Amino acid sequence: MSDLSEKAWLGQLNEHLVDAGNGHRLHKDTISPFLAMQDAAQKDGIDLQLVSSYRDFDRQTAIFNRKWNGHAQLLDVTGAPLAFDTLSDNDKLHAILTWSALPGGSRHHWGTDVDVYDRAAVKNWDGDFSLVESEYDKGGPCFALSSWLDANMHRFGFYRPFSLNKGGVAVEPWHLSFKPTASVFEKARNLHGFTLALEQSDIEGKSFILPQLPTLYNRYVLNNGLKPTEFA
Q1: pTM confidence score
Q2: What whole-number distance in Å separates Cα of residue 152 and Cα of residue 88?
Q3: pLDDT digit string (tens) for 57-70?
Q4: What is the CA radius of gyration of the chain?
């Protein structure tokens, strides 16, 4: 892992991945800790299952482009729907990045990060599950899972990288990262490689996005967000 290639953290190389079942793939160093955590949760009555795992650069590009073109719902920071036709390009960009990363900037490129839910609890729930924070709060179908993770995930090496809203990525209680391996990818990230990858990509809005990349990289990819005085 010390010789991690540029393409690996950008999601353009997948030699480190193994099958995790049901179409999911995880980093080879992440799957055993994840399965151990899943088994422990099951013994405590929590049906911890994957919503999302590894996504490559091209898949992330497709997600971004669908949102940029109005083919997928955009949300505000609270998870409320936005009216696409009323949004400027700047509004669209920040609405997308609050919930979905630019290609090359997603932690899901590494196979170390997963989105999880309580499958049994959601199945028995009356509402429409849409992966928003309220579903993991008290009264939501995944509250028991979230509480269990608070108490137990660290024993297996996992943590929540998006546990606070800093003015960058929204709070995502479902997003877990396997810290021992993810930290290697974090250290490998760099603005130069990220910029080159996006310059060569098929991302929509490229001419609008590229001039802002240094700011976007710091605010959303590194999730440093905004300073308190910069919040609108």
Answers
A1: 0.94
A2: 42
A3: 999 999 999 999 99
A4: 17
Q: What angle do CA 162, 166, 169 make, to 5 degrees?
A: 50
Structure tokens at 137: 């709060």
Query: Alpha-carbon distance 119 to 139, whole Å?
Result: 16
Q: Quick one: which of 186, 194, 222 has its CA closest to 1?
A: 186
Characterise 38 by phi-psi region: left (phi > 0), alpha (psi -120 to 50), beta (else).
alpha
Average pLDDT score over residue span 6-13:
96
Let me know the angle formed at the C-alpha of 221 by 138 and 66, rounded to the nearest 5 degrees: 80
Beta strands in 62-185 (DSSP E): 113-118, 158-159, 175-178
pLDDT at 3: 66
Q: Which two tokens stand for residue 152?
A: 């137990």
Residue whose C-alpha is closest to residue 107's, from 17, 189, 216: 189
